[in-house]
Design brief:
- This protein is mainly beta.
- The chain has one domain.
- The protein has a five-stranded antiparallel β-sheet with strand order 1-2-3-5-6, with helices on one face. The protein has a two-stranded antiparallel sheet with strand order 4-7.
- The model has no long low-confidence stretch (mean pLDDT about 75).
- Helix content is about 15%, strand content about 55%.
- The protein has one helix at about 1-20; strands spanning about 30-45, 50-65, 65-80, 85-90, 90-105, 115-125, 125-130.
- The relative contact order is 0.15.
Length: about 140
Amino acid sequence: MKIRYVAILLILVIPALISESIAQEVSKSKPVFGVRYSTGFTTQVKENQNYRVIHLMPVFTVDFKNNCFYLGPEYAYFIAPEPSGSILYNNNGWGLNFGYRLNSNEFAGNLRIFGQFNYSIYQVRSTFFWTHGNE
């Protein structure tokens, strides 16, 4: 079980290190097309159960001045809910991710603040188990 968490951590950290080492300075006067690898972790509550979800999103970006638009596929990995209930969700979900990011000007060095709108929609299969406690 710990190997799974280490593998997920490596999947999240290695692309960030690689992208930082090959980054280049670009002019902001014209649209710049690129690829970004985003990750996220969310907790969703539904009917007294906590669903923890890891999102992995390679997205295609268009940067223009301080604006960034992005679109791409999304892989969602569902960690078993707590407490377990009568609905069993498949761990794997696939979908679509898109959003907008507004960056501020640089303050000092590489310090920058941003606001971001992100929307994800994905499909997850589930199985419902009927128990006597659901009557």
